[in-house]
Design goal:
The complex is a heterotrimer of chains A (250), B (297) and C (248).
Chain A (H helix, E strand, L loop, with lengths): L3 H14 L4 H4 L1 H36 L4 H16 L2 H12 L5 E3 L5 E3 L3 H27 L2 H9 L4 H31 L11 H12 L2 H30 L7
Antiparallel strand pairs in A: 1-2
Helix pairs in contact in A: 3-6, 3-9, 4-6, 5-6, 6-8, 7-8, 8-10, 9-10
Chain B lengths: L21 H16 L8 H22 L6 H41 L4 H16 L2 H11 L3 E4 L2 E4 L2 H27 L2 H9 L4 H31 L11 H12 L5 H29 L5
Antiparallel strand pairs in B: 1-2
Helix pairs in contact in B: 1-6, 2-10, 3-4, 3-6, 3-9, 3-10, 4-6, 5-6, 6-8, 7-8, 8-10, 9-10
Chain C lengths: L9 E10 L2 E11 L4 E5 L6 H8 L7 E6 L2 E2 L7 H7 E4 L11 H12 L4 H14 L15 H13 L5 E5 L7 H16 L3 E5 L3 H7 L2 E6 L2 E6 L1 H6 L4 H10 L1
Classes of the chains: A mainly alpha (250), B mainly alpha (297), C alpha/beta (248).
Amino acid sequence: MDWSWAFEWARTLSEQSGVNLTFVYDSYDRDRLARGFLNTVYLSLVCLFLSVVIGVLGAWLQGSKLVWTRRIVQGYIQFFRNTPPLVQLYFFYFAIGSLMPTYENRFGFQEPMLDNFAWAVISLSFFAGAFNVEIFRSGIEAVPAATVEAAESLGYNRLQAYRYIVLPLAFRVCLPALNNNLVNLVKTTTLAYAIAVPEMLYMANQIWSDSVNVPETMTFLLFAYVFLVGLLVWAMHAWERSMRMPGYGR
Amino acid sequence: MSRRGGPPRDLAGETDLPVLLPAAAALQHRARRERELGAALPRLTWRHGLVLLLGLLVSAGLAQAQAGAAKEPVLEVIVRWLPVLLEGFLFNIVISVLAMAFGTLVGTWLGLMQISLLLPVRAGSWVVTQFFRNAPWLVLLFYCMFLLPFELRILGLTVPFPDWLKATIGLSLPVVANVSEIVRGAVNSIPSGQWEASESLAFNRRQVLWMIILPQCVKRMLPPWMNLYAILTMATVLASVVGVSEMMTQAGRVLAAENRPELLIPIYSFVLLCFFLYCYPIARWTVALERRFQVRL
Amino acid sequence: MAWNAEQPIVSCKDVHKSFGAIEVLKGVTLDVAKGETICVIGPSGSGKSTLLRCINALVPIDSGSITVEGQEVHDPKLDKLALRRKVGMVFQQYNLFPHKSALQNVMMAPVTVLKQDRAEVEQRAYRLMKKVRLEGKELAYPGELSGGQQQRVAIARALAMNPDVMLFDEVTAALDPETVKEVLVTIRELAEEGMTCILVTHEMGFAREVADQIYFTDRGVIVEQGPPADFFASAKDPRTREFLSQIL
């Protein structure tokens, strides 16, 4: 698709009115913003996926017979639930990151094993994962044993009862809380700015520092985030509505 | 976040027997509350304080062992820097109190506009609420930091507009949106029978709202409002990202001045401990209020 | 082991079952012939519901034997799927699956467990919904149905497996008095059609009307049994008489 008319329009706009949308007409700034946007989406998706994996694993471990396994999971949840995510990020990046071994790159410099992006992924996934553990656990607990009994009386074996009855039910119970958490996670990815991960906020900051167009870039950034998060919220609610059990809840 | 009114119902709602156990209703209640707050519910217990204190002491001990006896003891370093750190913490508290006050005032009006009978008012306030709810806190903070002027001229008077005040406004915007949702949720949770009964007694809408409905809402609004304050207090550390001299920033400066990497964990543990000491009583009080008002779970 | 229709379809011999230190069944023996309807009555906590769960192998027994159509239920090698095709069960709390519509509730097990043809099962499900007088409610979800309606869906769901025996576990205990009747009518029709039914119930009037045999249990044993006419008119055991005097 030909966007040159839009670039031209932005260039004229900046010449005539001073509203300087470099991230539209300047290919360098445009690429930076696009990279930042893609990094935000990528960071969100990786963290969403990992946090759900951590949630399932943690919920499974919480059902363990070993007291210490349960305690460690509980301690993990409590830590991440009750400290600011920014502190968690600093903790991972500065405290644990400094303990990690380094390796020599091809230019002969010492480079850490994990880069900033990896630390952001680890920190944010553990942050959102802690909530997912609790959510999944309550979801499973919400399905009464009698429902499993009813399924078994209809000839389902344990595995089938879980696959066809318990998990679909638990999932429906979890969905609203899970959605909150995932939306929250996407908003929290902006914190990765603090450890210089080139996501959208960081890239926008670079653009307005170089091109001195703070109001334009800032406003665009704000609307971009509101649009992105709003889209996610809308999609999640549509999903929730399609999954809702008539007669139960809203 | 449905726009429909009516009292909220439990998952085990309409049928006469619970098909799902109380965990389902509890989770749904939690999800609804978190949707109003735009963040997870904090739940502090005394154990967290104990763990933080232990963490501080253990990490200080380890750092000491690592550094050797020649260096100044870690706890003494913290005590020496205490005025600087606490001054930063004072900023956190002032920012949180002011942002909450401003957010509550504006948010309450926005919330009441959301239940207005006039469609444009209702729709407009809904859009504003959703806008600030969906915007990440840090982005709003950046916006205010960079775009508010450093001083205001009112009637020839020049009022300085320092960084911390801009941060306060930035942090109050999400509070506005979340208070608005809390108010709307609370008003909608009052059974419609209350409206009908008072209208049948010839109260007008304003009277019904202020004399019948809102007094009943206070009970339901107070716990989430206090939860929101706890969330906001924790979020004030974001101001360090934009360079306000609050406690996290000061902690970073202390670390830079001392140039002893082993101090990192003890000092940040101390920061967390300060936040805990401030937030814990609020959390206890919130739980007590929730229990007293018997918020349905 | 060959089984023919003259032998009891369900046969319990000296069944014992404990939950921890509490012995719930202390040697229960009972036979049910094909096409017969029996009612098990007795005070709560006397082991009635446990007995039904044992017959359906939901709960393992400690000793004794239970056979259904000659097949030992608590044989570890038993194919539970085969047993549960023969024995349908309806619960006090209905236990419908709330995320599926009434029709889907009826169709699920035959389609996913028995792998039967979906179109054929659907037709049968519609017939069963009609049979339990819920025509037009096929697409409603459990949360939108009254207790009595939900319980009738549960009956249809059990019938969809084409069982030879139906177990009813206090199916009216959780219902409003008005809706009890509609469920009982459905069960009576089933009994009249020759379905073998084992009911645990507190509805004495219904038991008297519909049962071929009545068993009275107390504290894990069968105290007394007999056809309803004799049972209600001339109970011999003092415990039975006391129970009946309290309930009638």
